[in-house]
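Q: Could you write out the predicted structure for this multi-component system? I'm mainly interested in how the pieces pack against one another.
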Amino acid sequence: MKYSSKVLQCNLSPMRKFYPYAVAASAAGKKIYHLNIGQPDVKTPQQFFDAVRNFSAPVLEYAPSPGLPVLMDAIRGYYGRIGVELAEKNLLITTGGSEALQIAACCILDDGDEVLIPEPFYPNYNTFVRTAGAAIRPIPTFAEEGYFYADREKVESCITPNTRAIVVTNPGNPTGVVLTKPQMRMLLEVAVEHDLFLIADEVYREFVYTDEPLASFMQLGFGEENLILIDSVSKRFSSCGARIGCLISKNGELMQQALKYCQARLSVATLDQIASAALYQVEPEYFTAVREEYRRRRDVVVQELQKIPGVLCTKPDGAFYLMARLPVEDAEDFQRWLLEEFEDQGETVMFAAGGAFYAGGRGKDEIRIAYVLNERDSARAIELLGLGLKKYNETR
Amino acid sequence: MKYSSKVLQCNLSPMRKFYPYAVAASAAGKKIYHLNIGQPDVKTPQQFFDAVRNFSAPVLEYAPSPGLPVLMDAIRGYYGRIGVELAEKNLLITTGGSEALQIAACCILDDGDEVLIPEPFYPNYNTFVRTAGAAIRPIPTFAEEGYFYADREKVESCITPNTRAIVVTNPGNPTGVVLTKPQMRMLLEVAVEHDLFLIADEVYREFVYTDEPLASFMQLGFGEENLILIDSVSKRFSSCGARIGCLISKNGELMQQALKYCQARLSVATLDQIASAALYQVEPEYFTAVREEYRRRRDVVVQELQKIPGVLCTKPDGAFYLMARLPVEDAEDFQRWLLEEFEDQGETVMFAAGGAFYAGGRGKDEIRIAYVLNERDSARAIELLGLGLKKYNETR
């Protein structure tokens, strides 16, 4: 049988190849500290579950294709509080931020088009761009420069006649890099000047550790035709399993195209929309506490990493990830070894090998750490990484 | 800004143009009988809501990308009971049957490819096929022949070197046509002989009024490389708002491609999966009662339609739709007139104009009726249609 040439260029998750090793290690009684996945351990606010339990309609009906008004109103209220006025037509509820990304790609990309994305980047961007017929052109960044990309010359030098959009994750996954307001302004200016879309994936907006107020590209007040925002309740409210996100833009033509897609897939899960609306009633103290918790985890992880000889990492300002360069040639081989051959008091550690976050070739000696474990476990996990590195390099 | 040439070829829902007229009619105090939408009024089984209320994990986490084992097991059990043995790898849980269709299109279609679909067809197929770069080539059917399409010569005459797949909705939306086992066998044989995928959208499987046992293309026992099944809990358990469907195939290569997409969009809503698993514990009596109810509604609708001079319709065997030809030139104009200018004792009626179910040009004098109202309301709705037709044609 013949398959789509587009999907053939996509990849299965690069993380899954370690799954059998992890299963075998667990089966052998090893405890694994998971720094490899972005699933927060923070409790989902009770408001979500209360709303679910209070649902009492006899029939679980389709929601309207653009989204349930109760959730759209809640999201518009949230944006209003950070100074962004959204009309109902500026917003489409999606099945997670993932579907918002997929719809955006499907609305603006044609075969042969290119999308600029600072590298390293979230690997799933590749599938959304590829299945729309386009390709990612990476904006290269470097560990030594703290993965800095917001340089006008650097960005503009990557633009070609095929470029349709710039995608930025801010705060960044996997790097934790957070843009300043002037950097955001510069990037949107570049998009406007070159007639490109700027797709701002801001799902980690609340996770900034610099005491700056919540920042969104939407606050800049210009470039409305160019800007597409991706948002989600997954990380904000530790509700990844709700699969509720949204696509936001003040570009009316884009939103009409996106609505075609939303109508074709009918609607987003009704109960999850109702429950997610309730999440927006969570008090500000919730975020303060969560942010403090992650700030402490980040500090522990960075502090412990910096004790390990040969490890290069910069303290990230946001999200709950960081990239680190290890004194190894091949982080994938090291990961396999950690699962198969290493242990310290019956324990070992998992991270995400860095190559997966690069478009091709680079990043083989890097890893992404998701600092989603509590402080004690984080410290122990990084200790295991250090012990493993020492032993791995001694035996090479 | 430049938009995808693919999405520009898609359409907004053709039904939405009547929405403002309906709102105005309601505002003017008219009661509207809705035969235009496929939202059943059947109560969602209590098992769904009980499972939702019993969820007690503190964090609403991502489900695994292929689906939650509890739901996959429930679906495999259901198929086992109709004689279809499915391995876990034959099944991917999706966000409604809609996402299963979208993933199937994305995995097998390239630019310039064609998909054969008996016409009239479910309009959203167009968006899934178009955004994958391909186009629908309709297999024409006719009201006078009861929208019959399962003729080998008819189907084979539509196959070109660009054909990649045949899509059939069985039982059919919008026609209610139900295939016999020999017809199903013939269609799958054609797919195998011509190296095509057969995408069988079987979401209305339970809704057959001929006392035949539940039928699936999967029961045929051949063509495993060619067959892709689309399924969903939406209609089966009147749980449209759960957005839980699945993609089923024994073609390992296809499922690997589909898994790439499933991993990129991370997962399907966790709670809805858990609750949908519980739906599969519903007793067989539930389906018997629902089927009887729809059979009675169908009988009333067909009986009343046949009393109206100039209306042509065939009694459908399945789903809860039928197509009817009206003695008007333009069903859209008639619908607008029914909402704006007609009433009988303060009441009027809505249907779906037929043109939307055709690839281009045909069906303008046809309508699709969703017989989702109880018997009394169904009879009154068709009475209103007849009164409207008489008056509309008198004033022309």
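A: Regarding packing and overall arrangement: Chain A touches chain B through 78 residues (CB under 8 Å).
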